[in-house]
Amino acid sequence: MNKVAAFYVFVRLESPEAVRTEFLAECSALGLFGTVLVSPEGINGTLAGPPACIDAFVDVLHRPAAHRPGFTNLELKFSGAGEAHFDRLKIKLKREIITFGDTMLGRRTGEYVAAKDWNALLDEPDVMVIDTRNAFEVEFGTFEGAVNPGLTSFSAFRDFVDALAPPVKGQKIAMFCTGGIRCEKASAYMIEAGFPEVFQLQGGILRYLEEVPETESRWRGECFVFDRRVALGHGLSLNGPPNFLDTARGNIAE
């Protein structure tokens, strides 16, 4: 059984090219497979490999290097997968680590809500719960009562926010996504658009499924993931519906 590490951090990188070179060398030496995006605003990746090798790379991430700081504020989640989890290793330079059209550097984001406190927030009056993922991901599963913006791309979230009626701006906003990264930019945009109380599920759906007992869960269905596992259930168990496999793989982003 391989170990999977999913991680991201928004941090200014003065030399993304040097970070890419470092990661390529380290991951190749450790025999890891997966994808890591590197940009001036930070890093975002999912890697799989033998547990000891994944742990060794995580240690590398936490240690500073001459060309970058140590990623001490890394949002990091672990799970398991079969031997053929990824086909290859890809370390890519990008303008953004999650495409939205602007950088995260210097922006205020929504207030983090831990998985254990998420149900209580959903129970508060006048809370609008927003699923920031694409529509095909929502088909697999979502939180009960959540608004589906019907997105075909994450950057279209701007149009959804801009179209909300002004009275909604007095409501609390509770947003979520797969691992938390999309909510960083989505919450920043909503705050800048005038929404005063914006909250985001820390660690995303995956952390909720990992930490919240199924008997207490407000989640309905499975959580789509952008790799060969396709969809995960509570405890991050492999729950990919067979009839969705081909369609899902066709939607997996490079």
What does this protein look like?
The chain has 254 residues and is α/β, with parallel strands linked by helices. It folds into two domains: 92 residues, Alpha-Beta Plaits; 141 residues, Oxidized Rhodanese, domain 1, CATH 3.40.250.10. The chain is 29% helix and 25% strand. It is built from eight helices and 13 strands. The radius of gyration is 18 Å and the shape is globular. The chain starts with a strand and ends with a helix.
Characterize this entry briefly:
By secondary structure, the chain is of the alpha/beta class. The protein is built from eight helices and 13 strands. The protein folds into two domains: 2-93, Alpha-Beta Plaits (2-Layer Sandwich), CATH 3.30.70.100; 111-251, Oxidized Rhodanese, domain 1 (3-Layer(aba) Sandwich), CATH 3.40.250.10.
CATH superfamily of the largest domain: Rhodanese-like domain
Q: According to CATH, what is the topology of the largest domain?
A: Oxidized Rhodanese, domain 1
- Determine the N-to-C terminus distance: 24 Å
Shape: globular
Figure out the total of helices.
Answer: 8
Tell me the name of the CATH class of the largest domain: Alpha Beta
Strand order of the largest sheet: 4-1-3-2-5
Uncertain segments are 240-254
Rg (C-alpha, Å): 18 Å
